[in-house]
Specification:
The complex is a heterodimer of chains A (about 450) and B (about 160).
Chain A: H1 3-54, H2 61-71, E1 79-86, E2 91-92, H3 102-111, E3 113-118, E4 121-128, E5 134-142, H4 144-192, H5 210-259, H6 264-294, E6 304-307, H7 308-322, E7 328-331, E8 343-346, H8 348-364, E9 371-378, E10 381-388, H9 420-430, E11 434-440, E12 444-452, H10 454-461
Parallel strand pairs in A: 7-9
Antiparallel strand pairs in A: 1-2, 1-5, 3-4, 4-5, 6-8, 9-10, 10-12, 11-12
Chain B: E1 2-7, H1 16-24, E2 30-38, H2 44-48, H3 52-59, H4 62-74, E3 78-86, H5 91-101, E4 105-109, E5 121-122, H6 125-131, E6 135-138, H7 153-157
The chains are: A alpha+beta (about 450), B alpha/beta (about 160).
Chain lengths: ~450, ~160
């Protein structure tokens, strides 16, 4: 069954039940009120009849009866019977009509008043105590108007019920269609996304309801997928580029060597150059193999628990070798004492690449002036800030810094490929983190990284 | 120690301006004064019960407080972050306000970044640009989506 039909059906069943209960209640309340009103009129008529009976000696009973029938409205099929009784012994002086049950008469004796309904007839009995002898007046009539009114109400309610069900069905169906239309849209949009257009994102609408949440979840998933795709394709691009460079150099050198006969010195010189390039190639291939073994294995990225402070200190040691005159100042003053707060889940080698790129950039673009690194932990996240006093990024170019191979206009003379920050950005995003760059030209750059700690990472996964 | 005035709309995003103050003033201890524009109540009863700190306190969200705390912990150069309200209506009032709080530097967004919704709150950026000395304008990219048609019936029916 389609979800739309299911929602409509459930909606209709629930509303029908509700309406049935309400309409039945309305009908019974109205019916009871009509009946009680009719009993009241019956008892009023019975009182008049009793008075006529009591004053039969003093009045001209025929005239009285005539007035009563002509001018005081008679009830349909009205019939009165007066039984002389002894109220003390609760016995009739003449026999009661057998048509009515004994308990009706007993109730009259006990309560001075009783009501009874049989078929379409309503009966009211009243006990009157009189010096000339007690008597019971039993008055019966049919409530033709009341019955007609009740029937009319019942029919109206039945028609109203069916009409409202039809309306509810139409509206419910329309609303269910409207409510589920974003899902159909999401399905269509997700279906249209292929490897070629992974950058496409789903519309999130006003961004507050569950469906917007679903779209956002899809978008997040797409972002992660795109990141993996980009990483892989850029990785291949860069790897090929890096591999080709030494190979071209080797080929060039061999071509020069074979061009004409040369002296031993010249051959030695050329061979040492070839050796250099071959060593570079060897280093690259070894690096690639290592990366392939650790990360891009068949199971995907290897996730380990890492201590951020240890990672940073390790990177600092490596940087001390590669950039000996760096001026990195680590500030671990606010470092939490609990290990769990500074432990994060992630790929060691990828995070190393990301953080190394950021630290290297900070040193490189600040001519090795002071670079402050601070780590704090707050609300399930590890916050890392890297502040340099370097050349900064021109403000119009800040939005492009995560584009691969983009280089800011004021750093053209500094070596680089424009690949460090985009890679770092993607790696941080892969780890459900955030990276922000605040920069002022010629003043410096502040890089802020927010990564979930181990506990938060597990919460995010669930 | 340098006293820096920064306009705010009490959103976490607006605290980015504080980060720009840090980058702009390397190796300097900072006292940040976050200022928002607030229209003073126009009846006597409300005016006599108007307390700046109370108004500010009500406006501070939990996220904002957490972000402010993190910011202070992350940057030792920030010695204090305080709040103030500008309740005036013109440039002269703002100049007086600047004189009282003794500001040395100001950081303002270049684009229309601060969102001061409601009839009571207003953005003081234009007053700062017009009257303050040492104004640094910074371009901030906003990533937050602004919800539109917030209360429309169409929105409700379309879920």
């Amino acid at each position: 069954m389609q979800l739309r039909t299911k929602i409509t059906t459930v909606f209709i069943v629930l509303t029908s039940l509700f309406f049935t209960a309400i309409f039945v209640l309305i009908y019974y309340v109205s019916k009871n009120y009509t009946e009680s009103e009719f009993y009241l009129r019956l008892s009023q008529r019975a009182t008049i009849a009793a008075e006529a009976y009591q004053k039969a000696d003093e009045l001209n009973i025929d005239i009285y009866e005539d007035i009563r029938i002509k001018h005081l409205m008679t009830l349909p099929n009205e019939k009165e019977v007066i039984y002389p009784v002894n109220a003390t012994t609760k016995k009739p002086l003449i026999a009661f009509d057998n048509y009515l049950p004994d308990k009706f008469y007993q109730k009259i004796f006990n309560d001075n008043y009783a009501e009874f309904k049989k078929d379409n007839y309503f009966y009211t009995g009243l006990l009157f105590r009189d010096v000339e002898g007690d008597f019971i007046v039993v008055l019966s009539a049919t409530d033709l108007y009341g019955f007609a009114k009740n029937d009319y109400l019942r029919n109206t309610l039945i028609i109203a019920f069916f009409v409202s069900i039809i309306f509810i069905f139409i509206l419910g169906n329309y609303y269910a269609k409207q409510a589920l239309s974003p899902i159909s849209r999401i399905i269509n949009e997700v279906n249209s996304i292929r490897a070629e257009n992974l950058s496409q994102r789903l519309e999130t609408g006003n961004g507050k309801d569950e469906l917007a949440e679903l779209s956002r979840t899809f978008n997040n998933m797409l972002e992660r997928l795109q990141l993996s795709f980009d990483l892989q394709s850029n990785f291949i691009n860069n790897a090929s580029h890096e591999l080709r460079n030494p190979l071209t150099a080797i080929l060039g050198q061999t071509e020069v060597a074979l061009d004409r006969p040369r002296s031993t010195e010249e051959y030695k010189h050329i061979l040492s150059k070839i050796d250099n390039e071959a060593s570079r190639l060897n280093f690259l291939i070894n690096g690639l193999l290592k990366l392939a073994k650790t990360d891009f294995d068949s199971k995907g990225i290897v996730i380990d628990a890492l201590r951020i402070d240890e990672l940073i200190m390790d990177l600092k040691q490596n940087l001390d070798i590669s950039i000996p005159n760096n001026n990195i100042v680590l500030d671990f003053e606010e470092l939490p004492t609990r290990e769990s707060e500074i432990t994060l889940m992630g790929s060691d080698s990828l995070l190393r690449v990301a953080l190394n790129n950021i630290l290297e950039n900070a040193c490189k673009f600040s001519q090795n002036s002071q670079v402050d690194i601070k780590i704090i932990s707050d609300g399930g996240y590890i916050l890392l800030s890297v502040n340099d006093k370097g050349v900064g990024i021109p403000e119009g170019e800040l939005k492009n810094i995560y584009e691969p191979f983009f280089r800011a206009s004021n750093v053209r003379e500094i070596d680089g490929f424009g690949f460090g920050l985009p890679l770092a950005y993607r790696i941080i995003k892969m780890h459900s983190g955030e990276i922000r760059v605040i920069s002022q030209k010629d003043k410096g750059t502040l890089v802020k990284i927010k990564l979930p700690n181990k506990k938060m990472y597990n919460n995010l996964l669930n | 120690m340098k006293k820096v005035l920064i306009p705010t709309d009490f959103s976490v995003e607006s605290l980015q301006l504080v980060e720009y103050a840090i980058v702009n003033n390397p190796n300097t201890d900072l006292r940040i004064v976050l200022v928002a524009g607030y229209k003073q109540p126009d009846n006597r009863w409300a005016l006599t019960h108007f307390i700046k700190s109370e108004v500010i306190h009500k406006k501070l969200s939990d996220d904002y407080i957490v972000a402010k705390r993190s910011l202070m912990r992350e940057h030792a150069c920030i010695k204090a972050i305080s709040f103030d309200l500008f309740t005036g209506k013109n440039s002269i009032a703002f100049q007086n306000f600047l004189e009282i709080i003794e500001i040395e530097d100001t950081i303002v967004p270049k684009n229309n970044f601060l969102k001061c919704d409601g009839s009571k709150w207003f953005d003081i950026t234009k007053y700062i640009k017009k009257n303050a000395q040492n104004v640094t304008e910074v371009l901030i990219e906003t990533s937050m989506e602004t919800p539109h048609q917030k209360f429309s019936l169409n929105n409700l029916l379309n879920l």
